[in-house]
Design a protein that fits this description.
It is built from 5 helices and 5 strands. It has about 130 residues and is α/β, with parallel strands linked by helices. It binds magnesium ion.
Length: about 130
C-alpha cells in the first residue's frame, strides 16, 4: 500500500533532500506533503491523511520536539509512525524521542539508513 508522507523541516533544501532519499529507498510512496515548521505541520496533518511523518528538530515558530508532543497528544495521531530527523543527537533528546515512540535519523543519511529507520518505526506501531 502506498504511504502518504509529511516532511516537516524549515529548510526547503533539506526537505527536498529528504524527499529524494525517500523516493530512492524503494518504498511505495503516495502523496508527499511538506511543511516549514511545527505549526504548519500540525495544520497539514489535520487536513490530510498521513501514514508517515518526518520532523526536523530545530525550526522557528514551533520546533520538532513540541510538534512531536502535540502529535502524540492527539487521539487521531497518537500511534502515527514518526521519524525525527536531526543533525543534533544528544542522549537526553534521543531518550525523549524514544519514550514518545518515534525513531531518530541523524542527518546526513543514506537511502539504506533511512529505509531501515522507516521499517523500524512502522514496526514500532504494529506492536501497539
Ligand atoms: Mg531546521
Amino acid at each position: 500500500m502506498a504511504m502518504n508522507i509529511l516532511v516537516v523541516d524549515d529548510s526547503a533544501v533539506m526537505r527536498s533532500m529528504i524527499i529524494k532519499t525517500i523516493k530512492l529507498s524503494g518504498l511505495e510512496i503516495g502523496k508527499i506533503h511538506e511543511a516549514g515548521n511545527g505549526e504548519e505541520g500540525l495544520q497539514t496533518l489535520s487536513d490530510n491523511w498521513v501514514d508517515l511523518l518526518f520532523i526536523d528538530v530545530n525550526m522557528p515558530i514551533m520546533d520538532g520536539m513540541e510538534m512531536l508532543d502535540r502529535v502524540r497528544g492527539k487521539q487521531e495521531t497518537r500511534d502515527l509512525p514518526i521519524l525525527i530527523v536531526s543533525t543534533e543527537s544528544n542522549e537526553q533528546r534521543i531518550r525523549t524521542i524514544d519514550e514518545k515512540r518515534a525513531g531518530f535519523v541523524h542527518k546526513p543519511f543514506t537511502p539504506e539508513m533511512l529505509r531501515e529507520k522507516i521499517e523500524e518505526v512502522l514496526g514500532l506501531v504494529d506492536k501497539t
